[in-house]
Specification:
Elements lengths: L3 H16 L6 H5 L8 H22 L11 H12 L1 H8 L8 H19 L2 H4 L3 H21 L6 H26 L10 H33 L1
Length: 225
């Protein structure tokens, strides 16, 4: 007759053996493995629904989102496309790992923060709110990129390099979007140069902070595992 304690021990050893044969980066790229299995999907879906609602309202009435003169149509096209970047990439690349809910949520949040900030008129009513959004959103997209592309055994330098490379590129892309869609026709044109340089610096800072935070969190999890 089998010993119950021995059976449990053998089962545990088998589970450990299976885990050690998982592809490198599977845990890192699943996104949110320490969070409840239902929380992240619920947040992602809710966020995308809110983005879709806001986009429709902006198309019907740009004044609703306080986006008059800020390329409301271009934003209404760009935000849904940006919010679907992670699902499309994950689907087209046939990833074997679990869906990266955390990265998807972080990307979706960048759309929500800008829509909410304009809707609540925080860009005009709160001093330095625009600067804060450039820093925060750069950190969000940098974190998402690291979670998607960098394996957890990576060094601190590798994580920060990846975060900065993508974060600064994304910040530059946003400044070019603003320049091409509405800035040249805006009353802000006279201060556009200094504002753009400041935004790029904040994007760099946000990316560095994101890389450092992710690297520290991963290192602590490795040492605690």
């Amino acid at each position: 007759m089998l010993n119950l304690g021995q059976t449990r021990r053998e089962a545990k050893e088998a589970a450990v053996a299976v885990q050690t044969h998982l592809p490198v980066g599977t845990e890192a790229r699943s996104g949110g493995d320490r969070v409840g299995p239902q929380l992240l999907p619920a947040l992602v879906v809710t966020g995308k629904v809110v983005v879709a609602f806001c986009v429709v309202r902006v198309l019907l009435d740009p004044a609703w989102g306080n986006l008059e003169g800020k390329a409301p149509v271009a934003r209404a096209i760009m935000y849904p496309l940006w919010a679907m970047v992670v699902p499309v990439l994950w689907t087209t690349t046939s990833r074997a790992s679990a869906f990266p809910w955390l990265a998807d949520l972080l990307v979706t949040l960048t759309c929500l923060t800008d829509l909410a900030g304009n809707r609540l008129d925080l860009y005009n009513s709160v001093d330095r709110f625009d600067d804060g959004m450039h820093l925060v959103n750069a950190a969000l997209v940098s974190t998402a990129f690291v979670v998607l592309t960098v394996d957890r055994p990576a060094t601190l330098r590798e994580v920060v390099e990846a975060a900065v490379a993508f974060g600064v590129t994304a910040s530059l892309a946003w400044e070019l979007f603003e320049y091409g869609t509405f800035l040249t026709r805006s009353t802000e044109w006279t201060t556009a140069y200094s504002d753009t340089v400041g935004d790029l610096i904040l994007g760099w800072v946000g990316s560095v902070v994101a890389g450092l935070v992710v690297a520290v969190v991963w290192r602590r999890r490795r040492s605690g595992s």
